[in-house]
Design goal:
By secondary structure, the protein is an alpha+beta fold. It has a single domain, classed as Alpha-Beta Complex (hypothetical protein yedk fold), CATH 3.90.1680. It contains 5 helices and 14 strands. The protein has a 5-stranded antiparallel sheet with strand order 3-1-8-9-14, with no helix packed on it. Strands 4-5-11-10-7 form a 5-stranded mixed beta barrel. The relative contact order is 0.19.
């Protein structure tokens, strides 16, 4: 799974990774580096609108048909293997895909109180793209529209499998445009984007327990121990 990650690269750096990107001014205006993003918080997300747009979404997918937004807390991740069959993810997989750029993510090794946190990133330190899905939910009481998202997960690669059996689906740069296309595309082609990324360009190292509390949000969270 993917239950914590960071977003340090600013919107302009994300645009450098995705030419032609539109940036929502409101989302850009409140941006700050985040070192310990937890479920149900707002995250920077690139939506597959006709012109891909970077905006803010609620992390935890709220299907448009949901009766209560609380359901989003149970859908922070979506398994790549069942996107086409799960009712909550089937329609977004076909029509509403997104990319969540991150500079690294966290995973825990072990069980119970003996879990050890690790930080996983690219060796270059550059941001990379996580495959995601998004939806728009309207609160019937207030009329408020809420954009929400989930991170797609897949089998762990050789590096991450030493820590956990799942990892976020990291997109190759050559797949960005396909994943973000707003026109119909085959599910087979989309599924081909979700294979585990090669471990060759990645690294993982042990960190302190600071990350265990969402209240800790500083570069100290990613310092090696």
């Amino acid at each position: 799974m993917c239950g914590r990650f960071i977003q340090v690269a600013n919107p302009e750096k994300i645009r450098a990774n995705l030419s032609g990107l539109e940036i929502d001014e409101a989302a850009a205006g409140v941006f700050r580096p985040r070192y310990n993003i937890a479920p149900t918080q707002d995250i920077l997300t690139v939506l597959n609108t006709p012109t891909p747009t970077l905006t803010s979404t609620h992390w935890g997918l709220i299907p448009f048909w949901a009766k209560d937004r609380a359901v989003g807390g149970r859908m922070i991740n979506a398994r790549a293997e069942t996107l086409a069959s799960k009712p909550s993810f089937r329609d977004p997989f076909r029509k509403r895909r997104c990319i969540i750029f991150t500079d690294g993510f966290y995973e825990w090794k072990g069980k119970g109180r003996g879990k050890t946190p690790f930080f996983i990133r690219m060796k270059t330190g550059e941001p990379f793209a996580l495959a995601g899905l998004w939806d728009r939910w309207t609160d019937r009481r207030t009329g408020q529209d809420i954009l929400s998202s989930t991170i797609v997960t897949t089998e762990a690669n050789a590096l991450v499998s030493t820590i956990h059996d799942r990892m976020p689906a990291i997109l190759e740069p050559g797949d960005y445009r396909l994943w973000l296309t707003a026109v119909p595309v085959s599910e087979t082609a989309l599924a081909g984007c979700l294979k585990p990324l090669s471990a060759q360009g990645m690294e993982a190292y042990e960190i302190s327990g600071l990350v265990n509390s969402p209240g800790n949000d500083s570069p100290d969270c990613i310092r090696p121990v």
